[in-house]
Amino acid sequence: PDDSVRAARDLMLGEGYSQLPVIRDDQPQGIISNSDIRQASEETAGETGVGDLPVADVMHGSYSTVEPDAPLEQIDNYLDHSAAVIVVEDGHVVGIITEADVAARLS
Fold it and tell me: Residue 26 and residue 93: Cα distance in Å, rounded?
């Protein structure tokens, strides 16, 4: 949450991700996505660049979590209400699942 939006955006662009889990002390804090960054850019037009803001100012604080063995139906249901689901095992974030991941698995 303390990293800059620019650092998050650069990581997403470099790795081909559309969103990232936001983690502090191995605990999920939220999710930041390309659309969050675009929306924040529109809201702050003419002010300080969004890239300099901390991720905490731009991220979504609400998110769903599942265990690694969660059934696809449960994940798909969560994705009906959010852009991603954070995968947590023994209290630690181990991954993130998006609609694109589910679509790839079903095809």
Answer: 6
CA 89 to chain centre: 17
Please enumerate, as own/partner, the contacts of 83-87 that have beta carbons within 8 Å and a separation of 24 or more.
83/18, 83/19, 83/31, 83/33, 83/35, 84/19, 84/21, 84/31, 84/33, 86/21, 86/28, 86/31
Query: The pTM is what?
Result: 0.83
Sign, Cα dihedral of 16, 95, 83, 32: negative
* CA atoms of 75 and 64, how far apart (whole Å): 9
pLDDT tens digits, residue range 14-46? 999 989 999 998 888 999 999 999 999 888 765
CB atoms within 10 A of CB 29: 19
Whether 21 and 28 have beta carbons less than 8 Å apart is answered as yes
Contacts of 70 (CB under 8 A, 6+ apart): 87
